[in-house]
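sry for the spam today, last one i promise. C-alpha cells for design, 336 residues
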C-alpha cells in the first residue's frame, strides 16, 4: 500500500515538472522563433545546474533568449560584454574605500555584474585569458573570491557564454579547463525563411520581451532536487560510461573511430553531465527513468566541445558531430 502511494506521489511530481516545462516553453515562444533544440537544452542546463556555451552568428537572438528566460523564470539577469580591455574586477567586483555618515573610511565590496542568477557572457573569447580565468571559479563552484573573502552566488546560477564563429581576429581561444566547465556547447543556426519572416513581424511590434513569470528560483531548485532522484538502470549507466571511455584513442578497447579520428577524449565531467542532464530530460518528457535515447540525444551537446578531432577527420571531411555519431554507433554495437 505504501509503495503504491509513493508511486502515485512520484507520478504527480513528474506531471507537475512536465507542466512547468511546458509553461516555460510557452512563454519563451513569445520572444524566440524556432530554435526548439536550443530552448530545450538551455532549460535542461538551468535545471541541472550547468552552464552553456552558445555559438552563433550575430543577430540570431542570443541576448533575447536569455532575457526571455530571465522573465519566464523570474530571475535577475546580467549581461557582460567581453572585450580585450575588460579586467577581472570588472566581472567579479572589487573592494573600494568609502566614507560613512560619521566620516570614517571603510572598505566595502562593490559587487560586479556576475552577481545575478542568469548571466549572459557575450563574446567571452574576446577577453584576455586573465579575465576569462575570473569565470572559472564562479562557473564551477558558484563562488567568487575577492581578496580573502569568498562570496556565494545565489541559486539557481547559470552562465550562457557566446562565441562568434566567423570573426576570430583579436580573440583568445578558451582554455580546455574552461571549456570543460560548460555543460553544453550549442550551435544556434540561422533561421529559415519562414522563421525569419516571423522574427521580422514580431520585432516590428516591439523589441521588448513579452514573456511573463511562470516559475521562480525556489521552484527551479525543487525541480533540480526531483531530477537527482530519477533512477538510472545499470545497463544505461554502463552504456554511458563506455561511450565516454570510447572517446579516448589511447584506451586499448576504444573503437576504431576514436583511434582514427580523435586526438583527445572527454573528461570524467562529461560522464557526470550526461547522467545529470539525462535525468532532467527524462522528466521533461514525462518519464521517471533515464533511457538510451536520452543519452544519445545529449551526447552531442555534452561531447562536442570536450573531444578534439585530428587531421584524419578533417581530411575525411568529418566534423565533431560526425565523429560523435560514429562513436555512438560503435558503442551501441559493442554493448550488444
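last one done:
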Amino acid at each position: 500500500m505504501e509503495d503504491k502511494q509513493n508511486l502515485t506521489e512520484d507520478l504527480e511530481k513528474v506531471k507537475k515538472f512536465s507542466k512547468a516545462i511546458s509553461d516555460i516553453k510557452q512563454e519563451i515562444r513569445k520572444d524566440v522563433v524556432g530554435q526548439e533544440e536550443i530552448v530545450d537544452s538551455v532549460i535542461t542546463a538551468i535545471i541541472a545546474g550547468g552552464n552553456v556555451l552558445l555559438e552563433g552568428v550575430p543577430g540570431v537572438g542570443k541576448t533575447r533568449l536569455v532575457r526571455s528566460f530571465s522573465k519566464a523564470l523570474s530571475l535577475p539577469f546580467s549581461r557582460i560584454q567581453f572585450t580585450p580591455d575588460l579586467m577581472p574586477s570588472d566581472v567579479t567586483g572589487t573592494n573600494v574605500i568609502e566614507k560613512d555618515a560619521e566620516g570614517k573610511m571603510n572598505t566595502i565590496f562593490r559587487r560586479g555584474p556576475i552577481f545575478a542568477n542568469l548571466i549572459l557572457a557575450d563574446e567571452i573569447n574576446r577577453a584576455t585569458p586573465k579575465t576569462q580565468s575570473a569565470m572559472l571559479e564562479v562557473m564551477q563552484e558558484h563562488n567568487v573570491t575577492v581578496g580573502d573573502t569568498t562570496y556565494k552566488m545565489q541559486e539557481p546560477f547559470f552562465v550562457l557564454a557566446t562565441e562568434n564563429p566567423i570573426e576570430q581576429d583579436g580573440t583568445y581561444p578558451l582554455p580546455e579547463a574552461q571549456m570543460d566547465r560548460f555543460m553544453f556547447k550549442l550551435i544556434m543556426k540561422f533561421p529559415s525563411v519562414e522563421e525569419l519572416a516571423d522574427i521580422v513581424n514580431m520585432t516590428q511590434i516591439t523589441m521588448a520581451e513579452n514573456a511573463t513569470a511562470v516559475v521562480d528560483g525556489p521552484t527551479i531548485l525543487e525541480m533540480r532536487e526531483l531530477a537527482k532522484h530519477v533512477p538510472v538502470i545499470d545497463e544505461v549507466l554502463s552504456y554511458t560510461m563506455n561511450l565516454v571511455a570510447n572517446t579516448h584513442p589511447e584506451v586499448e578497447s576504444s573503437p576504431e573511430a576514436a583511434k582514427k579520428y580523435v586526438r583527445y577524449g572527454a573528461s570524467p565531467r562529461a560522464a557526470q553531465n550526461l547522467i545529470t542532464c539525462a535525468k532532467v530530460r527524462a522528466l521533461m518528457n514525462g518519464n521517471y527513468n533515464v533511457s538510451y535515447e536520452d543519452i544519445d540525444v545529449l551526447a552531442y551537446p555534452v561531447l562536442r566541445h570536450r573531444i578534439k578531432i585530428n587531421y584524419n577527420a578533417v581530411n575525411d571531411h568529418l566534423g565533431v558531430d560526425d565523429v560523435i555519431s560514429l562513436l555512438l554507433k560503435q558503442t551501441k554495437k559493442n554493448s550488444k
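The two ends are 38 Å apart (CA to CA). ok im logging off now
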